[in-house]
Specification:
Helix content is 61%, strand content 5%. A hairpin with a 2-residue loop joins strand 1 and strand 2. The longest helix is centred in the N-terminal third of the chain and has 53 residues.
């Protein structure tokens, strides 16, 4: 007995170290994974905070910041009805710490409100804007974790790190995630809803209501997410249907399955089961819709529990299907009036600029072309690879409608819009396709892994080289950030963000010189120490010295400004968004 017992000890002794080594290796990999996630999010934090600290207000930010202060201090919905309140409530969370002064008696329009808050109320505009931006920065980082978790659910840790790297190094995500605007929050909430709907394939009772909250948050942030709502509800039906089919069968069902083979034809029992699953899915979609609607109502009630609302006197009239949609939606009256304002914007003829051409109206291919310019080349390659793998690999194919259909529907809707003003209208594309790109690692070939790593490195280098000028980013095929202004305008390159940098450049390198300024933005030059006049208000022969011009103003120059530029020589560049000329 003793000898037999002794013979067993070495066997167990050999197995334990082997098991211990495997467990140690797993812990080591988990630790490396955590370190990689922390490093990626840390560099993104540095990039966004640096950008937020150095940039002056972009065109939309003062409106959102002013509206957020009115929400927090006065509980009034009277400003900025064209956008629902949730994104501005998030911005308002920072205002609770900034505690800016705003005269309760102020009654200007929303543009005047932003100027009054930042420049006419004794507040420090740098401090106010930083606090307005910080909540969006935090939210952007949290959405990075959603990208990570979604991709890990699909393909594991390596793919998740690839997806997070593309998200964390995306110049567009960094640029807009560092601003007090609504584009990143809306895109992130929508991705979160899709991820939760995907998880509902396993636990529908938990994740369907949570997906409804996230969907409602997206709709309560930007109305442009509305076209995705029916898509998400259909995905909820798919998830619940899958969950019902994957549910364990009872013993009686197992015995039936063990019996003689039955015909493959559709039997009444099978048809009834399919109908029951469809009915359950429809009920889940209804629950999700109700929760989403309740979330939108909650956002408005959080601003004003009494929901006081007076429609603006210039509210556009809508007709036909638009009017029917506005009237039928079970959403608060301020939301539906905001939709009328948005439809009014869509009926306006705007100017666009693409590849050096200034035009009126909109081009259906504007957004794809702008994305082609502003997407890092390595990122675009990984998007294509991930899409190919997602559609080709059988076990990943169920995720295709979840990852590709929502951004496709939103992109088609945005391409049919009237405002060719920037890729921010399609910011959901890099957010969703980061997850898609992570699926490329499923290909089990050494060259595929090396290629994916090289492309991620290419994206990282391209992104780091543009630091801290993320807004005017263009990829290397189009000349980089220095040449974006030749191909795009507005929020793609020059959104008024470099007024403070211009002030520093003039003070440090061009002191005591006469300055003329054509500025496109919401900032007040004098508030940053810039003493400049508009050259378009005086005869051309009186304009001498330095002429600083926003690049969007150059792209949209009228005859008078073109004449001024024709007799000037470029001598400096500020942030790739403002060009300084010298006029003799």
């Amino acid at each position: 007995m003793a000898s037999r017992h002794d013979d067993r000890v070495p066997v167990g002794g050999d197995a334990m170290p082997s098991t211990g080594r495997r467990e140690g290796l797993r812990r080591h990999r988990r630790a490396l994974f955590a370190v990689a996630v922390i490093l990626l999010l840390a560099q993104m934090t540095v990039a966004m905070v640096t950008t937020a600290v150095e940039q002056t207000p972009t065109i939309d930010e003062p409106v959102y910041a002013g509206t957020a202060v009115v929400y927090v201090q006065q509980h009034s919905l009277r400003y900025n009805p064209e956008h629902p309140p949730l994104g501005k409530l998030i911005i308002g969370a920072g205002m609770l710490f900034a505690r800016p002064h705003l005269d309760p008696a102020f009654r200007g329009d929303q543009t005047e409100l932003g100027r009054h808050l930042l420049y006419e109320s004794g507040n420090d505009p740098w401090r106010v804007m930083l606090w307005a931006r910080l909540p969006v920065i935090v939210l952007t980082l949290l959405f990075g974790l959603v990208v990570l978790a979604f991709t890990r659910d699909l393909v594991g840790r390596v793919g998740a790190l690839v997806a997070l790297a593309l998200y964390a190094f995306s110049p567009d995500v960094i640029a807009h995630g560092s601003l007090a605007t609504l584009d990143v929050p809306a895109s992130g909430f929508l991705l979160t809803s899709v991820w939760l709907v995907w998880r509902a394939r396993r636990r529908p009772r938990l994740y369907v209501p949570l997906a409804g909250v996230a969907l409602g948050a997206a709709v309560a942030t930007k109305m442009s997410t509305l076209p995705a709502v029916p898509v998400l509800l259909l995905l909820a039906v798919l998830s619940v249907r899958y969950a019902g089919r994957a549910a364990p069968v009872d013993d009686g069902a197992k015995e039936a399955e063990a019996g003689p083979p039955r015909s493959a034809a559709v039997t009444p029992d099978r048809a009834g089961g399919a109908l029951r699953l469809l009915g359950t899915g429809a009920a889940a979609a209804a629950v999700m819709a109700v929760v989403a609607v309740a979330t939108v109502w909650a956002a408005y009630l959080a601003v004003d529990p009494r929901l006081r609302w007076t429609p603006p006197p210039d509210l556009p009239a809508v007709h036909g299907l638009r009017a029917l949609l506005v009237d039928l939606l079970p959403l608060p009256q301020p939301y539906r009036d905001g939709m009328r304002v948005q439809f009014g914007f869509e009926d306006t003829v705007w100017q666009g600029f693409l590849f050096g051409r200034l035009y009126r109206g909109s081009l259906w291919y504007y957004l794809p072309a702008a994305l082609l310019v502003k997407t890092p080349l390595g990122m675009a390659a990984l998007w294509a690879a991930g899409t190919t793998v997602l559609t080709a690999v059988r076990r990943l194919r169920p995720a295709v409608p979840y990852l590709l259909l929502p951004p496709a529907v939103l992109l088609v809707a945005a391409m049919n819009g009237s405002r060719d003003l920037g890729v921010r209208y399609a910011l959901f594309v890099p957010v969703f396709l980061a997850v898609v790109a992570g699926c490329a690692v499923v290909v089990r070939r050494r060259w595929a892994g090396i290629g994916a790593a090289a492309l991620v490195l290419f994206v990282a280098v391209s992104s780091l080289l543009t630091f801290p000028y993320y807004l005017p980013y263009a990829n290397e095929a189009f000349g980089g950030p220095a040449e974006t202004r030749l191909r795009l305008h507005d929020s793609n390159v020059d959104w008024g963000q470099d007024l403070g940098r211009l002030a520093d450049r003039l003070r440090q390198e061009h002191p005591h010189e006469k300055v003329w300024l054509v500025y496109k933005g919401a900032g007040v030059p004098a508030a940053y120490g810039i003493d400049a006049a508009d050259p378009r208000t005086v005869p051309r022969e009186r304009v001498h010295g330095l002429l600083a011009v926003s690049d969007t103003a150059i792209a949209k120059a009228d005859a008078r400004l073109k004449a001024l530029l024709a007799g000037s020589r470029p001598v400096d560049d500020v942030g790739h968004s403002i060009t300084i000329f010298r006029r003799p």
